[in-house]
Structures are given as C-alpha cells and as structure tokens.
Amino acid sequence: MGRFPAIGPRYLAACCSAPCDAKSRECRNSSVLTGLTLPPSARNDAPVNSVMIETEELSRSYGSTRALDGVSFRMGQGKVLCLLGHNGAGKSTLVSILATALPPTQGVARVAGYDVVRQAREVRRRIGLTGQFAAVDGNLSGRDNLVLVARLLGARRAEARTRAGELLDAFDLAGAADRAASTYSGGMRRRLDLASSFVGHPRVLFLDEPTTGLDPVSRAALWEMVRSAVADGTTVLLTTQYLEEAEQLADRVIVLGHGRIIADGSVAQLKEQLGVSTVRATLADPAALPAALAALHRAGLEPQPGEPAGTVVAPVRESAALAAVVRALDEAGLAITGIALSEPTLDDVYVSLAEGLPELPVLS
C-alpha cells in the first residue's frame, strides 16, 4: 500500500484499538455506517441510555492562558451535542482532551465510561475523530487510506476492502478511489478524512468543524451520515461555526465563551430563553413611519425603521405581541399592508450572548 503514514491521532487510536489476537477478531456485514464492529468487551460494556461523555470541572491552561475553565456536562447515548463559540473559545481544546490527544490541567473527563487520562487506550477503542484539517496520507490512494484504517482496527483484508468500497460510495469518492489522495481537491480530501472516522463504527464520534470546505451538497450528505450514525446509537460531539448546522443536527447545544459554558440547552430552549422574535410591519404610507415608531414606543416596544422604506421592526419576547403591534398602529390610525412575525434563530441567541461577553465576535 505504499509508505506507512505518520502516526497521527486517527492512526494512534486505530493502533490502540486493534485486537492483539487475530483469532479474537469479530467482523460482520452491515450498513455503511455500522460496518466494522468493536470487540464484544468494547461493544457491550455500556448500557443503553448510559452517559457517553462526562466532564467535571475540566480545565486546560497554556501558560497563563486558560483555554478551558471549569467545564462540566454529561451527554447520553445516541445524541448530538453541538459546541458553539468564537475562535479561541475552547472548542477544539475540549475535543482534543476528550479524544485523549491532550491532557487536562485540572478536572476529570470520561468517554463511554472510561477516564481519558488513566484509561486512554479504552477510550480510543470506542471513538472516531475528524479534526479541523484533513488527516489523510497523500501518497496512498483513497481506497488504501480507508483500508489501512480498517486493518489497524482489526479487520481482515477482504472486509477492509469491502468497507472501504462502501464508504467511498457513500462519500462520492468511488470515481477517484485508486488515485493518490495528493491529487484530490480540498473538498475530496475532507470527505476522505470524514469517511475514515466512520470505518470502525465508533461509540462516540468527535467532529471538529467537519464541514469546513465542503460544498452544500456534500455538507447535506454529511448531515445524513450523522443522523444515520445517531439512529444506530452513536453519540456525536460536533463543533461548528455554521449555526444552521447546529439547528439541523443538535439535540443539545453548549455555547463556550472564553473557556466557560455560557449557555446550555436544546435549540428550542435556547431560543425561548435567549432569543427574541421580530415583528415586521409594512405601512400603507411610508411617510407615516415617525408616527408608527411613536405609537409602538407608547405601547412599550422598541421599534426601529426597517427596509424597505415604510417598514417598522420591533423585537418581541412572545408571539402575543403581534396583536399588540396591530392594535397600537390601528389606534394611531395607521394602515398597514402586511405584518409578519419572525421566530428567533441561533444567530439571535449568539448575538444575545455576545452582548454580555466582552470582545466576543459574531459567528458567520
């Protein structure tokens, strides 16, 4: 298969996962995502609905800089946890600690019930990891990259090639399967890197900004792969700067700010607690905008001029305020040609959080 690749986190995890006794290897045919199985001890040691990721006062310092500061949370099986935060918030540091690539300065972290420091080998047997940058061997073909990972995980040669073929098809790489990965485009290398994470059917899958560099079609395909893995019981921890991605996939969202948890809940909970809906009314007479602003101020709202001209916009905390806007404008004798209520988005939630956190940039 050519030159053996440098040992990085994925290969290290795979080497630590491979059974030492070839006779003990257990393989089976399955779907694209379920593929290779773990040894029985790794596959059955956590009950259904068990806690798969747990941290207690987890901290990490680089000199005087505190990248993580007392992070505590628990995540159950078959769920997607999305980490949001600005660059430098601590997202990648947290993933690195949970994936055993970086030790914490303080605190405890467990994955699938195993301590990431004292039982790192057991953790590595149960996880898949895709980092921010594609970690593939450019001298190997796409197929051989995947076969290598499968062999390190203990698969027989025939099954490793079968598994590689399944994933090459799933990630739309079959047409370039036997080309050197160095000839791949950036998006293709990214898809190959993602495919490697699915080779061994991990109990916990860490995806650190996995769709960076992917086109919309490839991004949507990855979302479906994640949903399928979760349906099979895999727990996914996803970091992203695409808020739409979090809305599409997350069962739970944790927002980090300067190494600390500043918000935690489902998308719906965060929107309800921190988001603000917006009423947008279009006036029949654009010249009546000053009167409309005054009328809504008297009703206790904080209206602003909107676009196009003759539009008034007011943030509201509940949908019942829509009627209050209509009533206030009607009592002022102002006719409208249209009115709409926009529900809050995760962008709104993040902006709301950013207002209380100094130097916190807005995600795009």
Describe this structure in words.
There is one protein chain. By secondary structure, the protein is an alpha/beta fold. The chain has two domains: 9-259, Rossmann fold, CATH 3.40.50; 276-343, Alpha-Beta Plaits, CATH 3.30.70. It has 13 helices and 14 strands. The chain has helices at 9-17, 40-43, 91-98, 120-124, 142-152, 157-170, 186-197, 216-231, 243-249, 267-274, 289-298, 321-331, 346-354, and strands at residues 51-62, 65-76, 80-85, 106-111, 114-115, 127-130, 204-208, 235-239, 252-257, 260-265, 277-283, 304-306, 311-316, 336-342. The protein has a six-stranded mixed sheet with strand order 6-7-8-3-9-10, with helices on both faces.
* Proportion in helices: 25-40%
The string of secondary-structure elements, in order, is HHEEEHEEHEHHHEHEHEEHEHEEHEH
CATH architecture of the largest domain: 3-Layer(aba) Sandwich
Low-confidence stretches: 1-9, 15-44, 360-364
Subcellular location: Cell membrane
GO molecular function: ATP binding; ATP hydrolysis activity
Keywords: Antibiotic resistance, ATP-binding, Cell membrane, Membrane, Nucleotide-binding, Translocase, Transport
Main location: membrane
